[in-house]
Automatic annotation (TrEMBL):
Alphabetized Pfam families for the sequence: PEP-utilisers_N (PF05524), PEP-utilizers (PF00391), PEP-utilizers_C (PF02896), PTS-HPr (PF00381)
Cofactors (names): Mg(2+)
Protein name listed in UniProt: Phosphocarrier protein HPr
CDD domains linked: PTS-HPr_like
Encoding gene, per UniProt annotation: ptsP
Compartments where found: Cytoplasm
Gene Ontology terms describing biological process: phosphoenolpyruvate-dependent sugar phosphotransferase system
Length: 661
């Protein structure tokens, strides 16, 4: 009786778990309490939360959770919707209260589960595995799956609750079948099952039906609300769990209206001649796991995001995939193509051109890989160092032919941490990268936070325009302790292997002086800055006076020069790194820096642009791993003296520049 009363009270609080007086009183009456710490990288997201819920529901006890670090809660630990949206992050302390005949037993079991990180293993955004063309390119007829379930023909009756229960049962059978058929992704489908049968959601839907709503209306409203709650969470990984909620919503709605289960393998077989490209609003895990890879050339996802369960599953199966194609109109059966590397999705492409590009790229890659370890010496005798950009250690492990790393993105390397990494942890990571690259020089960029680069252990206040606010080095003038710890880790690594350090988002000479003061004695350590804003490019001679090198970040330099956000489809075409204005700034930096100049932005990964950069005098190019062999191969073919840099710098626009290359 007490357990049911407590659950009923907690079920009435909102999905974000704000404290309500009645629930707080119920927890105050808990027979026993313990305190646990969340160790999971992404906190109590869907899968570990589902394990906790499953455990708790196996005992005769009412269990409540309160996040002591945020004050959120108490919430019903037997409800996945409540636990997952409590938003308990790594390092948070949770108070667990239990009442009932098995209160002691359930708390002991919860403590054990927490000590095992709730059985969770961090899942990183998956790198594309070999499959399809092997080149992140696909072409084929569009296979449309998903979209809103049409419930307009549903006729409500007197037995709405029974019809809903039947639909939920059917959905449960489908999910259990998927779980059994895909054991490697079983945890994902267990979480889906827990969402399907969540008692808080069940009570809410039943109450709506009792109030006169039809089963589809009640079900859709409750799960839409829950999805919106997930989308409001701080953690990007958690926000993408909203697609799991919508997948459960739609599975039950299809069962209610008698629609087919909408598994994509059947759609592809029926609607495509040869391998098709699946076009979906979102990619949920069930869809990704049931794909017949022999019938699907690739997947195009309208929504953005790289850590969704569906994206992870699809890439783990080696299926070419592009995300964030937006609302472009696509008809079923229309020929579409995409290049995930360039982010280009085309409807009605030139088929011969795309296929020729695939064949040509495959041939070029095979030849480039065969000579990847050879230096990039141009035909006129200039040696250009080609390095690799590193976000995770695996980037260094998989790099072929890289002469080192021109950019170690530390904010990516430790980007999932809710607590700052220790000096020792950073040293271990830097050592691993250096070893993977044969102890060639690595350039470590200090924490680059702000704009589109959140750092979970260093939350920032919301800004009206974050790209023009506290970014990069600016942030650490108020948290120098974090910067000093990182610099200590860099110095310790530099005692064992060649290491350079560079500071991001530097605009003034005062910022350079402050950064050098934080570093202290260099002891042979090479020091540089990123040149990412026009002001830094124009005064580079002053900024570089006490430096060893500068590295041009063409992504931000292009954005700030053209006043165009590349993630905004309306203005993205303006943000072109080959815009003559951007190239003029690069040329100015090379001629006035007085030190070695590198480029580590996207432009360095373009083999054609790489030749131009080298002709302008750039000494080092740092590219994404798969492009390193191709950049080196193109440089070997080039005679830099034949590049008409004057014409390029005087060109009308980026298209004219391309025509000159």
């Amino acid at each position: 009786m007490v357990a049911e009363a407590q659950r009923g009270l907690v079920a009435k609080q909102d999905h974000l778990g704000d404290v309500v007086a009645a629930a707080a009183a119920a927890v105050a009456e808990a027979d026993r309490t313990v305190e646990i710490v969340v160790g999971n990288v992404h906190g109590l997201h869907a899968r570990p939360a589902a394990r906790l819920v499953g455990l708790v529901n196996g005992f005769d006890a009412a269990v409540m959770l309160t996040d002591l670090d945020t004050g959120r809660g108490p919430v019903d630990a037997g409800s996945l919707s409540m636990v997952a949206t409590l938003n308990a992050q790594q390092g948070h302390r949770l108070r667990v209260g239990a009442s009932g005949s098995q209160a002691a037993e359930v708390l002991a079991a919860v403590e054990k589960l927490a000590a095992e990180n709730f059985g969770d293993e961090a899942v990183e955004p998956a790198a594309p595995a070999a499959g399809g063309s092997g080149l992140d390119v696909a072409i084929g007829p569009a296979v449309l799956v998903g979209g809103e379930v049409d419930v307009s023909g549903y006729v409500a009756g007197d037995n709405e609750l029974a019809r809903l229960e039947e639909a939920v049962a059917r959905a449960g059978e489908e999910l259990r079948g998927l779980r059994d058929d895909s054991p490697e992704h079983g945890g994902i489908f267990e979480a889906h099952l827990a969402l399907l049968t969540d008692r808080t959601m069940r009570d809410e839907v039943r109450a709506s039906i009792a109030g006169g709503a039809s089963a589809p209306t009640a079900w859709q409203h409750s799960y839409d609300t829950l999805a919106t709650t997930f989308e409001a969470l701080d953690d990007a990984y958690q926000r993408e769990r909203a697609q799991d909620v919508r997948a459960i919503r739609d599975r039950v709605l299809r069962a209610l209206v008698g629609a087919a289960s909408d598994e994509p393998g059947e759609a592809a077989a029926a609607g495509a001649v040869g391998a098709g490209i699946l076009v979906v609003p979102e990619l949920d895990a069930a869809t990704a796991a049931t794909l017949d890879a022999t019938r699907i050339a690739g997947i195009a996802v309208r929504a953005a995001g790289t850590t969704g369960h569906g994206v992870i599953v699809a890439r783990s199966r080696g299926i070419p995939l592009i995300t964030g194609i937006g609302p472009v109109e696509v008809r079923a059966g229309a020929i579409v193509a995409f290049d995930a590397r360039s982010g280009v999705f085309e409807v009605a492409p030139d088929v011969d051109r795309v296929r020729a590009t695939i064949a040509e790229r495959r041939g070029e890659r095979d030849q480039a890989i065969a000579r990847a370890d050879e230096p990039a010496i141009t035909r006129d005798g200039r040696t250009v160092d080609v390095l690799v950009n590193v976000g995770v250690v695996q980037d260094a492990v998989e790099a072929r032919g890289a002469d080192g790393s021109g950019l170690v993105r530390t904010e990516v390397l430790f980007g999932d941490r809710r607590t700052p990494p220790s000096v020792d942890e950073q040293v271990d990571a830097f050592r691993a990268i250096a070893r993977a690259l044969g102890n060639n020089p690595i350039t470590i960029r200090t924490w680059d936070v702000g704009g589109d680069k959140p750092l979970p252990f260093l939350p920032q206040d919301k800004e009206a325009n974050p790209f023009l606010g506290e970014r990069g080095l600016r942030v650490f003038r108020r948290r120098p302790d974090l910067l000093r710890d990182q610099l200590e880790a860099i110095r310790r690594t530099a005692a064992e292997t060649p290491v350079h350090v560079m500071f991001p988002m530097v605009t003034t000479a005062d910022e350079v002086a402050w950064a050098l003061d934080q570093l202290g004695p260099r002891d042979g350590l090479e020091v540089g800055i990123m040149v990412e804003v026009p002001a830094a490019a124009l005064r580079v001679g002053t900024l570089a006076k006490d430096l060893d090198f500068v590295s041009i970040g063409t992504n931000d330099l292009t954005q700030y020069t053209t006043a165009a956000d590349r993630t905004n489809a309306a203005v993205a075409p303006l943000a072109d790194g080959l815009d003559p204005a951007v190239l003029q700034l690069i040329d100015h930096v090379v001629r006035h820096a007085g030190v070695r100049v590198a480029v580590c932005g996207d432009l360095a990964s373009d083999p054609q642009a790489a030749v131009l950069l080298a002709a302008l005098g750039v000494a080092e190019l740092s590219a994404v791993g798969p492009q390193v062999p191709l950049v080196k191969a193109r440089l070997r073919q080039a005679d830099l003296g034949q590049v008409d840099t004057a014409a390029v710098l005087a060109a009308r626009d980026a298209d004219q520049v391309r025509g000159l290359l």
